Amino acid sequence: RNQGGEGEAMAGLVRYHLHQGTARYRQAAAGLVPAAVIILWLLPDLHLTTWRPRESILGLNLLTHNFMQGFVPGSYPLGIEASRVVVEPVDFDPAHLVKLLDRVDYEALRSASVQLGATDLPEELPVTLNPKADVAILKKIHRLLFEIRIESGNLTCPKTGRKFAITNGVPNMLVDTIEEATKTVDEAEAD
């Protein structure tokens, strides 16, 4: 008796029926396959709209940058020195973007976009934005907030000049020592 062949055939049958979405095979599979495999098979039921590989979710986007500041009072917005920037398309939802813009500091976004070389944003954001009528400006803002990712470079504190390295899309905002943090805060308060 070849158990390896039967096991593979059974696993294939279970995968087929799980893919088809039949509940009784999902229940039966619980006793036949490891838990990790079941979890992977159940992922379609979580209604994930898009799946992206790990590399594509990394990267500092300008929405995240818009909410960041240094540890010294008055260190907002952080300057950007990007050495590697990736542009990856993201689904455009104008209604969601209009709601989100209430929380975004437009001046900081515009400043960051200029530092990255995108100078096509208007000086001031219109007071009211209509998701259907203002599609052109919303697409520009969407591209800046969501599609541009900074993979490597530095964020610079405007108050102290301290640089925070961005490596693999993750900014390192930690201070090396307590003495350095205290010294930096004291210098900033003296100014």
From TrEMBL:
Coiled-coil segments: none
Domain of life where this protein originates: Eukaryota
Family annotation (InterPro entries): Trm112
GO biological process: rRNA (guanine-N7)-methylation; tRNA methylation
A GO MF term: protein heterodimerization activity
PANTHER family tied to this protein: MULTIFUNCTIONAL METHYLTRANSFERASE SUBUNIT TRM112-LIKE PROTEIN (PTHR12773:SF0), UPF0315 PROTEIN-RELATED (PTHR12773)
Protein name: Multifunctional methyltransferase subunit TRM112-like protein
Organism (species): Lotharella globosa
